[in-house]
Each structure stands twice: as C-alpha cells, then as structure tokens.
Amino acid sequence: MAIIVEDTRTGGKGILLGSGMGLSVHNDPTLMGTPRATTNQVERLAVCDKEGRVTWLEMAYARVVLVDGDRPQDVLIDD
Questions:
Q1: pTM higher than 0.70
Q2: How far apart are CA 31 and CA 74, in angstroms?
Q3: Domain that holds residue 57
Q4: Chain segment 11-44, per-residue pLDDT in tens
Q5: What is the helix, strand, coil percentage profile of the chain, to 5?
Q6: pLDDT at 21
Q7: How far apart are CA 4 and CA 12, in angstroms?
C-alpha cells in the first residue's frame, strides 16, 4: 500500500516516496566589507504522479489524504 499526499496549492495528488532537506548558504557583502552568511533551509517530500514522474513538494504545502487506503482520521483514533 502507499501514503497519498495532496499539494494544498493545486489539489494534485501523489505517492509519497521519501523526504529530504535542501540547505543553501549565501555570502552577502555588508557595508563594512565583511561578508555575512545567510542560510536557507527547505524541507521537501519526494512524490510521484500517476505516470511515475518524481518531483519534490515542499512540506509546508503537503497534506496526507490516505495511508494504506484509510483516511488519517480513521487510522489515528483517540483513546
């Protein structure tokens, strides 16, 4: 079975394959001439569409809709 995720921006759905993180560092010059490092971290999910094409989806825009054919609210039952 699989975990199906939805892109909350487009409504498109895909199969969750895994996760990853991107990190970039930029050296921005300052007025005093000393570079200042700026970092940017982006967390993403690897997903594939119905044609099997793999793409990256930002976690902030992902929502799990099915886990092994069941809705998350049906799997995570309150005690």
A1: yes
A2: 57
A3: 3-75
A4: 999 999 999 877 777 777 766 667 777 777 778 9
A5: 10, 60, 35
A6: 77
A7: 10
**DSSP-based three-state secondary structure for 68:** coil
* pLDDT over threshold 90, residue 79: no
User: In the chain, how many domains are there?
Assistant: 1
Whichever domain contains 57, its CATH number is 2.40.10
User: Token match 């119905």: residue?
Assistant: 50
Sheet holding 36-48, edge to edge: 54-58, 36-48, 13-28, 3-7, 62-67
What value, to the nearest 5°, has the Cα angle with vertex 65 and ends 48 and 5? 20
The gap between the terminal CA atoms of the chain, to the nearest Å, is 25
